[in-house]
């Protein structure tokens, strides 16, 4: 696979604004790019650079690096640092930073990092009239292990005194030029005494407001490309461009193109609307048939054209350098880390996980406490309830592998499964091909420990994916694979405490590992070759690893990426393959109190705490439709995908409560589809901490969506979060999506949006109420 890259280099930003002959433009070139660095000398209270510094309160500091010496560049935003001073950063403790003059600003950017953990917090801008705007900050830890993967935040890389990679982050703060002069910005208070997590501010850059004009603040060539399903000629890579409207007027009908040195845009990106003070990231596909085979800086021009509210056409041209390369991925982690998250996966939002295996035969665990799919592991531990359960129901001489012959799969029907997934409105699914028990559900030539050689004598992966490819082409296909096996005779991982051979937990005598084919090297003779079988036989869109542990994943990851690109497909892997290569990170049965800076996926079962079917769970104990929809919305509003698991019974039949939940979610999504699948997280605020509200914004910039988890208790719904698409009463319509019912609204004296809900019937069957706010041009 060939790749497209950008290095983090200081870039000089040259802007010019031109008008078409039919209209004069009210913006001059010099002022359109006018910015200044806030003087923070009076606020510096911590030293983070150089020998003797102590950034995190634990003796660690950032070593001297040339690119942080007084100036720092995070892509196209420039900062001034206090490198070499006695104190060089502001350790946030509720300080209010005064702006030097009462000036109307169009944009604010902060160079920050967090120590001792990621930090979710807010900063507040105060205007001369006393009104305020608050912006949510989700700041990664300065030692974030996934800094190299960050795709929604720009990074200044450095080293600490242990020579480990660390990072500072460039983060925008909302300042609305329509609100008049901004006079100050308040930093968050220090964290509680129970936590040492701290926000550090190294620099602040302010852009003066213009009458009209768009600022390009970010440009990154990526390895993503336009999918074609068949590769005909070179790929069309995607370049990420971030636009920030520093003007007092709306920017409408925005077109972005890139050209120069043999590069042309293959399609003009169109953003319908961008509000004053707001920003949006867009993808621009480029054609570069003669790009070099090695990493090479290529000067290009990014041209942005828009129409302001006065119907004047404004053009902004930015000269910059993209670091492009066309090359296949190799087996080095550094090469593979430059693979980007597939665009289709970033927009998928909702997927279905399927856990089905031999563990579905006993199908038991203490409800809400343990995973039923871990039955074998749990029965082997004397103090675990499953140990006693197995003795009582199957006896001490009944081995886990004896369940293989009892696995009756007569009700397995891939079409029924796929119909249900389609009805849920999920965009992808992930099927478990081999769990920790080592029993493959596909045709593997490497061992007889599979459902093809034993028990059912069927290749379930082939049956499911064959029907999926032919009859459900819109569903993306993912395959789960456990890298280790609990009791494989040649698996030995002291870090996990997993090793073979298996034993009888009641007699402690060794027992056979059914279907075992002798190998000397578990990883390279079984693990890697089996993943290769999955990649080549079934062509999955996602390889979903689990557990990690001992591995040689770079061996197959390069092959996977390159094979997909050769066929015009974008694919992805998660972060559990045991190395530092991944396209998205995963969390399991957990709600995050911060927003990751890269694509992430939240996974859980409809069962309260199990992925495999658990016969001990009663119908009433399954998660409710409302709670699942709210978790889906919460995840999407925070930039993640929601992977919801179903666990079919041993027969292949999906339990009725699981079916009803998926069908109900699908019906709800039918009424609010655009708010989830055609929208992105709102950069200013993901949720209101004082209420049950979440936010997304349409990719075209015309609509925003407010999700209310609770029906308003009063006649009015008050929204303190600044709403990007709000315009005049004549140009803005607010309606309840679930019922298409329009509502009246106004802005109160505190600049909050007030929605009149007096005449709305808040039907509890709606689960979550979605208000669509649309600006009409």
Description:
With 777 residues, the chain is α+β, with helices and mostly antiparallel strands. It is built from twelve helices and 40 strands. A hairpin with a 5-residue loop joins strand 38 and strand 39. The protein is globular and about 80 Å long.
Would you spell out the secondary-structure blueprint of this structure?
Elements: E1 14-18, H1 29-32, E2 35-37, E3 71-74, E4 77-80, E5 90-91, E6 96-103, E7 105-115, E8 119-127, E9 132-139, E10 154-159, E11 165-173, E12 182-186, E13 198-208, E14 214-225, E15 237-245, E16 251-260, E17 263-265, E18 269-274, E19 279-287, E20 296-308, E21 313-324, H2 333-336, H3 343-346, E22 350-354, H4 375-379, H5 385-394, H6 403-406, H7 414-423, E23 428-434, H8 460-471, E24 476-482, E25 492-493, E26 498-499, H9 522-538, E27 542-546, H10 554-566, E28 572-573, E29 585-588, E30 600-605, H11 625-637, E31 640-646, H12 656-677, E32 679-681, E33 693-698, E34 703-708, E35 716-719, E36 732-736, E37 741-743, E38 745-747, E39 753-756, E40 769-775
Helix pairs in contact: 7-12, 9-10, 11-12
């Amino acid at each position: 696979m060939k790749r497209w890259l950008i290095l983090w280099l200081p870039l000089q930003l040259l802007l010019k604004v031109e008008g078409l002959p039919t209209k004069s433009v009210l913006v001059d070139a010099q002022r359109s790019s006018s910015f200044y660095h806030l003087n923070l000398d009076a606020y510096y209270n911590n030293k983070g650079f150089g020998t003797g510094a102590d950034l995190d309160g634990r003796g660690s500091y950032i070593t001297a690096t040339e690119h942080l010496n007084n100036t720092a560049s995070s892509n196209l935003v420039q900062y001034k640092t206090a490198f070499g001073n006695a104190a060089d950063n502001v350790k946030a403790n509720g300080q209010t930073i005064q702006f030097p003059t009462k000036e109307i600003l169009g944009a604010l950017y902060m160079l920050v990092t967090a120590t001792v953990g990621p930090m979710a917090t807010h900063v507040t801008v105060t205007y001369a009239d006393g009104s305020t705007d608050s912006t949510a900050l989700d700041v990664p830890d300065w030692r974030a292990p996934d800094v190299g993967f960050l795709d929604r935040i720009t990074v200044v890389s450095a080293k600490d005194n242990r020579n480990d990679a660390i990072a500072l982050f460039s983060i925008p703060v909302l300042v609305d030029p329509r609100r008049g002069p901004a006079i100050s910005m308040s930093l968050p208070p220090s964290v509680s005494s129970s936590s040492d997590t701290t926000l550090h501010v190294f620099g602040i850059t302010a852009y003066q407001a213009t009458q009209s004009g768009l600022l390009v603040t970010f440009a990154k060539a990526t390895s993503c490309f336009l999918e074609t399903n068949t590769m005909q000629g070179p790929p069309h890579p995607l370049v990420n461009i971030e636009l920030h409207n520093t003007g007092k007027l709306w920017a409408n009908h925005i077109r972005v193109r890139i050209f120069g040195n043999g590069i042309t845009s293959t399609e003009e990106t169109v953003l319908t609307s961008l509000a004053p003070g707001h920003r949006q990231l867009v993808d621009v596909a480029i054609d570069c048939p003669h790009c070099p085979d090695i990493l090479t800086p290529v000067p290009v021009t990014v041209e942005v054209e828009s129409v302001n509210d006065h119907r004047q056409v404004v053009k902004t041209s930015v000269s910059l350098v993209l670091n492009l390369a066309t090359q296949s991925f190799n087996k080095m982690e550094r090469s593979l880390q430059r693979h980007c998250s597939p665009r289709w996966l970033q927009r998928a939002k909702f997927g279905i996980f399927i856990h089905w295996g031999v563990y579905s035969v006993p199908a038991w665990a203490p409800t809400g406490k343990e995973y039923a799919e871990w039955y074998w592991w749990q029965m082997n531990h004397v103090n675990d309830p499953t140990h006693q359960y197995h003795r009582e129901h199957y006896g001490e001489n009944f081995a886990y592998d004896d369940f293989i012959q009892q696995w009756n799969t007569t009700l397995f029907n891939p079409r029924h499964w796929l119909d249900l997934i389609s009805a849920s409105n999920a965009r992808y699914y992930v099927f478990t091909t081999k769990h920790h028990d080592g029993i493959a559900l596909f045709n593997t030539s490497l061992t007889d420990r599979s459902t093809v050689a034993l028990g059912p004598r069927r290749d379930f992966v082939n049956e499911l994916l064959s029907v999926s490819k032919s009859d459900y082409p819109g569903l993306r296909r993912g395959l789960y694979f456990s890298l280790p096996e609990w009791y494989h005779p040649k698996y030995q991982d002291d870090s996990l405490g997993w090793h073979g051979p298996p034993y009888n937990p009641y007699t402690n005598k060794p027992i056979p590992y059914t279907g075992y084919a002798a190998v000397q090297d578990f990883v390279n003779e079984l693990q890697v070759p089996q993943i290769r079988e999955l990649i080549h036989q079934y062509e999955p869109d996602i390889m979903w690893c689990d557990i990690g542990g001992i591995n040689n994943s770079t061996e197959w990851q390069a092959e996977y990426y390159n094979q997909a690109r050769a066929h015009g497909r974008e694919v992805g892997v998660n972060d559990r393959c045991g190395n530092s290569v991944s396209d998205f990170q995963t969390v399991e049965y957990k709600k995050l109190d911060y927003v990751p800076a890269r694509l992430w996926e939240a996974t859980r079962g409809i069962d309260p705490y199990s992925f495999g079917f658990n016969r001990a769970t009663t119908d009433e104990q399954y998660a409710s439709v409302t709670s699942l929809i709210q978790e889906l919305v919460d995840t999407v509003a925070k930039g993640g995908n929601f992977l919801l698991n179903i666990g079919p019974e041993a027969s292949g039949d999906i339990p009725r409560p699981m079916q009803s939940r998926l069908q109900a979610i699908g019906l709800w999504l039918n009424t609010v589809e655009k708010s989830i699948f055609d929208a992105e997280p709102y950069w200013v605020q993901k949720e209101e901490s004082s209420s049950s509200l979440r936010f997304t914004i349409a990719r075209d910039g015309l609509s925003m969506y407010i999700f209310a988890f609770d029906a308003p208790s009063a006649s009015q719904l008050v929204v303190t979060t600044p709403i990007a698409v709000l315009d005049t009463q004549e140009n803005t319509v607010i309606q309840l999506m679930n019922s298409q019912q329009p509502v009246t609204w106004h802005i109160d004296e505190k600049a909050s949006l007030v929605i009149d809900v007096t005449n709305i019937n808040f039907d509890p069957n709606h689960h979550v109420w979605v208000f669509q706010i649309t600006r009409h041009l």
